[in-house]
């Protein structure tokens, strides 16, 4: 299971690397809806055979980011405007569940990581850096729940939510400190579960 | 998107058919953890080429039911005992969300389908029939929410939950009328959202 979004580490395989690079390009809109993913070009760019590229394509398909179209090859999927409301409500349901299990298990180390991600988020000067830091903030907050399947589902929702955010905000994005993040961290530090869940719900419904 | 569990209809492709047959055999324990899935045998049994079998394997992998093991081929995954607690809590979170959106949209036709599934469930004399009817009951109840991504996630959780149920109850299963199902349908008929959600939460935590 992938536990941190956009992770890069020494154990990454060629498939992981190609999948993450393509995912990031689709999420940010660099590869737009309908675009053809060319197996031979990508294999050449990464100096690999077709096998890991094909495998990376299937992972993109499983995440709903690409789709094999008969006679047209692998294409970037369209953005579904109705999907974002579903994704927000599913994030609220699952992230509140994860936070409920995570909050009693936060220690100085995890709180320091949440705070570092919060500061990185506020300091971001472009949307790609902000998005990565924002996902790092939310994951650092929820990771202590220790529920891998739940965290994996939340990560999938983050990917779709980020794609919608980039599609609609990329041209209008402005750097700003996030007061919800600060309030959320404060409630977690105080071990106030009710308040923390209320802030998280409001935050996800507002910014997503 | 697959909207009804174990659906069979005219539009099913060879891949769908092979995927569903293998899924059902893994879920019910007929294909146990660690078992090798033999591409050539399955292709021969279904009178197809290796291509749709390979595709069905990848779908099983995406659902966590099979895994490609280096030098050992495709194998049925092990059951993770800790997974069931996660699956129950995720079902509670997502099914309560779906029910909240579905309840105001229930009409005579959807209520009749929920009731028919409830009766089929109570009448089941073996665990496989009961499991299918039980999933049909839960899906009929939630389908009117009209949220395809949410329903698809719930279906994945049902598949894993059913696999655990079969593993632990297959030898001890007994036919019995389900009073939770009756109470849930009554609360939905009365459009009592709070009561319906309370019963659903209790039911999922009890029977799963």
From TrEMBL, chains A, B:
PROSITE patterns to which the protein is assigned, alphabetical: HTH_GNTR
GO molecular function: DNA binding; DNA-binding transcription factor activity
Keywords for this protein: DNA-binding, Transcription, Transcription regulation
Transmembrane feature ranges: none
Positions of the HTH gntR-type domain: 12-79
Gene3D superfamilies: GntR ligand-binding domain-like, Winged helix-like DNA-binding domain superfamily/Winged helix DNA-binding domain
InterPro entries, sorted: GntR_C, TF_FadR/GntR_C, Tscrpt_reg_HTH_GntR, WH-like_DNA-bd_sf, WH_DNA-bd_sf
Keyword DNA-binding: yes
Coiled coil feature spans: none
Highest taxon in the source lineage: Bacteria
Protein name, UniProt field: GntR family transcriptional regulator
Organism taxonomic ancestry: Bacteria, Pseudomonadati, Pseudomonadota, Alphaproteobacteria, Rhodobacterales
């Amino acid at each position: 299971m992938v536990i941190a979004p956009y992770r890069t580490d020494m154990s990454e395989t060629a498939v992981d690397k190609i999948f993450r690079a393509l995912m990031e390009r689709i999420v940010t809109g660099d590869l737009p809806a309908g675009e053809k993913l060319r197996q031979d070009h990508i294999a050449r760019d990464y100096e690999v055979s077709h096998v890991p590229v094909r495998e990376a394509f299937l992972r993109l398909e499983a995440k709903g980011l690409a789709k094999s179209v008969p006679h047209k090859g692998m294409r970037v999927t369209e953005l579904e405007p109705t999907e974002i409301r579903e994704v927000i409500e599913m994030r609220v349901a699952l992230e509140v569940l994860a936070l409920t299990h995570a909050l009693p298990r936060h220690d100085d180390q995890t709180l320091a990581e949440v705070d570092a991600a919060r500061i990185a988020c506020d300091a971001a000067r472009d949307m790609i850096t902000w998005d990565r830091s924002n996902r790092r903030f939310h994951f650092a907050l929820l990771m202590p729940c220790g529920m891998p399947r739940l965290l994996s589902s939340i990560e999938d929702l983050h990917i779709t939510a980020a794609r919608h955010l980039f599609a609609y905000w990329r041209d209008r994005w402005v750097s700003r400190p996030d007061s919800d993040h600060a309030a959320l961290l404060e409630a977690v530090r105080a071990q106030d579960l009710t308040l923390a869940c209320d802030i998280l719900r409001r935050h996800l419904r507002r910014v997503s």
